[in-house]
Amino acid sequence: CVRAQSSNYFKRYHTARLDELRIFLENEVWTPCPVRDDFSLLHLQEFRGLRNSLQQYAGVSPVQVPSRGSGSLDGSSIGGSFFTRYTTSESPFDSCPDIGSLSQDENILDVTDYTSGYFSEDSDEENTELTGGVTAKNHRNKRRHDCSGPLLTNTTLTVLRHCGKYLQMSRLLRANSTEVVVCLSQLFDYYLYAVYSFFASDLPAVTSSSVLSLKLQATLKRIKESLTPNPKEEDAIEYKVGEPSMSVVVDLNSNETLHGLSERVVAVESLVFLADQFIFLKPYLEHLQPQSHTLHVLYNQSVSVASEVRRPVYACVAWRAVDIRQALTLMMRVNWEVKDVESKHSSYVDFILRDLQIFSMRLEEISKHVTISQPVMDTLWANIAQQLADIFVEGFSSAKKCSNGGRGLMQLDWTQLVSQIEKMCSLRPIPHKEFVEAYVKAYYLPEQLLEAFVRDHNEYSSKQILALVSCACQTNKKLRQKLTSLIEDQERLGTR
């Protein structure tokens, strides 16, 4: 029957598109595609026939989307004669324009971005006329990535184009709408999985637990199990696609580029943009498939965690901002048994600040070439703040003995660092500040409160807590043994 034939065709078509998406991802160099500032999926030709319906279900006012195309593809113009337009060797999906005709059918490009390679000599001449003789060359240095448009790649556009084609088919063949919703979710899932696997692969194991939410971990595991092939599976399962490999052109190892920060930003923010577009589609998809479990999983497990990918990916840059080993080595050389409270901070603080200043300068240089939004900037500095807090507590825990003057020096060092970080970023208060301050203040706690601190604060490692107990209980061997036994019990029970 027609339904079975269309279903089989769509399955084959979607399988081919997944393979194509893998190839796109493996060849993607993660540079921004220069789209107009207000770009959305409504500007794509594949969504022209759905614009009114999408806007209606999204509850937004119809927007005039500029296009040089002459014919309307709105749903009202499509009737029973739709399939007569195609021969037996063609399909509705073959009508997508090629790249050469995009300028005639779409208006998605940022025509003021003269640095891109998307324009021909004709477009340069046209822009010269429109600006009264001001040439692109004169603007090239003035405007590089000074636009406020969304960050997305050619692969992001490809995913959106596939979504438009799939929705066209679901509108024409409503019986296949269930499969369409499943396949739309797989396109998003695969893009999310690729971005994470490409750009969070260099995340240290000790850091991953603190920057990876349980929800994101569960989502990544589900995608891997449902979409990527398992060598142990003997029978082929529908819609399996190989794990993508990042292009060798992408360099994530250079200190000067902050380990590929530009590419990481484009990748993650393009994922966030894609999630926003799927949120816009949600009311229409719920109209196609009311109370759909697939839609529930898509929006509650995949789309909702897109922004959470920022933290682990940008943590891969943040943990390299400071030479951790050298910083800890310098902290071990500090004399924490000074009698009087020092008026000047320790030299290791200056070492850390020099590293942060270099990071800040490189970050400023990168921001000249790719837009770094405030959420991205805040995530970067929040990750750095967490890294610094871990360094300080670990360094303080290396002290074998510590006097009151030494504790005062610890507070002075941390206060100095925080005051300088506040000049480099806009985060207020500095995240994880309390993590360090609570550890230092614990040295002053009386016996009963110290025991409660050890029992309640499992965010510190056993080594760090043992060092605290050793210093705080230098003259009370009985209490030291009691608290040491408590820490060992916590380790045995897995509560620390």
UniProtKB/TrEMBL annotation:
This is Syndetin C-terminal domain-containing protein. GO terms for biological process: endocytic recycling; retrograde transport, endosome to Golgi. The lineage of its organism: Eukaryota, Metazoa, Ecdysozoa, Arthropoda, Hexapoda. Signal peptide: none annotated. It comes from the Eukaryota. Residues 258-488 form the Syndetin C-terminal domain. InterPro entries: Syndetin_C (IPR019514), VPS50 (IPR040047). One of its GO terms (cellular component) is EARP complex. One of its GO terms (molecular function) is SNARE binding.
